[in-house]
Amino acid sequence: MQRLLSSQKVLPYLLILPASLFLAAFFFVPFVQVVLEAFTSDEGFTLAHFRTMADDWKFMPALSNTLGLALVVVPIQITLALVMASLVTRLRRGRDVVLYVFTIPLGISDLAAGLIWFALLEQNGFLNSILYGLGVIPGPQNLLDYRNTAGLFVAVVVAEVWRATAIVLVILVAGLGLIPKEYDEAAEVFGAGPLKRFFLITLPLLRPSLQTALILRTILAFEVFAVVAVLAGNNLPVLMGETYSWQFDLQDHKVASAYAIVILAISLAFTVFFLWALHDRTREAAA
Amino acid sequence: MADIDIRQVAKRFGSHQALHAVDLTVADGEFVVLLGASGSGKTTLLRIIAGLETASEGTVSIGGRRVDDLPPRRRGIAMVFQNYAVFPHMTVFDNIGFGLAMQKMPAAEIERKVRRVAGMLHIEELLKRYSGQLSGGQRQRVAVARALAVEPAVLLMDEPLSNLDALLRLEMRAELKGVLQESRTTTIYVTHDQVEAMSLADRIAVMHEGRIVQAAPAPEVYHHPATRFVGGFIGNPPMNFLPASREGEGARVAGHLFRDAPASGGALAFGIRPEDLAPAGEGFAGRVKVVEPLGPHQLVTMDLAGHLFRAVLDNDLAVRPGETLVLAPRPGRARWFDADSGASLAEITQPEPVTGA
């Protein structure tokens, strides 16, 4: 045992064994179960559940809403977080306080965040009260009207940006801290103004952090659920909402599993894309 | 090309005074080395000249123009950073051409200038590579090439050789000297390495605790240190210092009487470089403690009236530990300092002509 523990070849594997067992029991086994559920019936292998899913009238809206939300929310979050991170790192005093304030939404669950924005936007909510009090509107407006899909979409975008930009911010602030300040100083000495320094030096050097933030935020964006459920209910179907609906309302876990596989496939595709697109090519052997 | 005029520049970081009213003028085309230990303020002074740091007081002029309110990019300077700061996401070509591209120079012109400086530094074959594919020495050449490419009025270098291994440092030092002599650019070069300073500088400005204690050509700094600190800091092994007591017109040092010592000032301290000592019939008599052969010479450490005293002597002299050795200063090489202020006093014998001033 003593020899086994001191062996440099065996020890690393022994050390990752507990974590591996944990992952196998609570991640890999359920994952295999979901795959089996999605692709099998009593007669064996089948794509029938995927057909059922695709034939449902809500599937296409759910797919396009989810992709649409991700494509709108993530770029806004990355841009906002870049601006905020640049501001935070430039602060000489009170940097930590500002950072904590910026990251408060991180401490709030997505369901609670949805409720906060619902309280703001509903017919008798804060926004209506303020606008009415200021005399801007004659009476309460229904901002979350189920007939106004675009309005619901915008409400969800705003709530998601408020809720989850901070995680991007935290990653980018950490990333900015890793860039030696000499690069910025060298660019300054050699004639680059603030904007050029940002786009020619800071942004490219921030690539590893941007990659992490993009992958993390995009995957989470495909799992958008609670905020949508609170603000739009069934009027803005999304993939995760449909998964929930098939699993618990319609009690068909086969189709729910098929939805889960679709979400996984999209997330995987985007992750691979970001890994490829933002890959560091400068360390490969010179031609 | 331009001269630099630094007047009464002071810098405070909170309660810490990093620079005290520094004055320094650098002539057009001159190579000045700021030499000092870490914390002496040399890098702070360089960064103030570059505009990367603002002075708390005082003014900096480059080419007769006040630059205190100008950002670095409007000062006509170029800089080589200690860690090189070669942009990792750009090729060597784009790095060298960065300053030129910022000036919106036509591509053909950039190409011509990049190739010229790359040739000067022997890195033409690396132009397509990225920083991550270069060795430390190659990265250093890229940083120098990038600075020379913009043909700056003033070139600032912050310990550019300190991250290289000893052999490469020697090689780059000689090469740098050649390249910079050719370009005749006004240069300020920061280092803590006195050998580097001596070999490169037209003039060395020795810095200590936020002040320039002496600014003079290398031989003068070496032979006529302005203060006891400079004598101890420059030279390896450092200058020997011994307490002296006045006796009439002269002074007695470790039992040996010097007939005339500087009349001015209070208490005296005596200084002599280890290589300015030779065996003699009369002089400092001490017991040899350690003999270290150094190839061409031998370093002898002896105990002289309770003080450690070092001498660099010829190899052919047979010296053994435990023996008593009598050494005398070579004519004109003894130095006297004010024991309290550390300031240099006139030499005991007729002063040698100041060389290279």
UniProtKB/TrEMBL annotation, chain A:
A family per Pfam: BPD_transp_1
Membrane topology: Multi-pass membrane protein
Subcellular location field: Cell membrane
CDD domains: TM_PBP2
Keyword Mitochondrion: no
Gene3D superfamilies the record matches: MetI-like
GO CC annotations, alphabetized: plasma membrane
UniProt keyword annotation of Transmembrane helix present: yes
Signal peptide location: none
GO terms (BP aspect): transmembrane transport
Keywords linked to the UniProt accession: Membrane, Sugar transport, Transmembrane, Transmembrane helix, Transport
TM spans (from-to): 12-36, 67-85, 97-120, 152-179, 214-236, 256-278
Domain ABC transmembrane type-1, residue spans: 63-274
PANTHER family assigned to the protein according to its UniProt record, in alphabetical order: GLUCOSE IMPORT SYSTEM PERMEASE PROTEIN GLCT, TREHALOSE TRANSPORT SYSTEM PERMEASE PROTEIN SUGA
UniProt record similarity statement: Belongs to the binding-protein-dependent transport system permease family.
Record-given protein name: Multiple sugar transport system permease protein
Species per Swiss-Prot/TrEMBL record: Chelatococcus caeni
From TrEMBL, chain B:
InterPro entries (alphabetical): AAA+_ATPase (IPR003593), ABC_transporter-like_ATP-bd (IPR003439), ABC_transporter-like_CS (IPR017871), ABC_transpr_MalK-like (IPR015855), ABC_transpr_MalK/UgpC-like (IPR047641), Mo/tungstate-bd_C_term_dom (IPR008995), NA-bd_OB-fold (IPR012340), P-loop_NTPase (IPR027417)
Pfam family membership, one: ABC_tran
Chief subcellular location: membrane
Keywords of this entry: ATP-binding, Nucleotide-binding, Sugar transport, Transport
Gene Ontology annotations of biological process type: carbohydrate transport
One Gene Ontology cellular component annotation held by this UniProt entry: ATP-binding cassette (ABC) transporter complex, substrate-binding subunit-containing
Membrane topology: Peripheral membrane protein
Segments forming domain ABC transporter: 4-234
Location relative to the cell: Cell inner membrane
GO molecular function annotation: ABC-type transporter activity; ATP binding; ATP hydrolysis activity
Transmembrane spans: none
Family statement: Belongs to the ABC transporter superfamily.
Protein's name according to its UniProt entry: Multiple sugar transport system ATP-binding protein
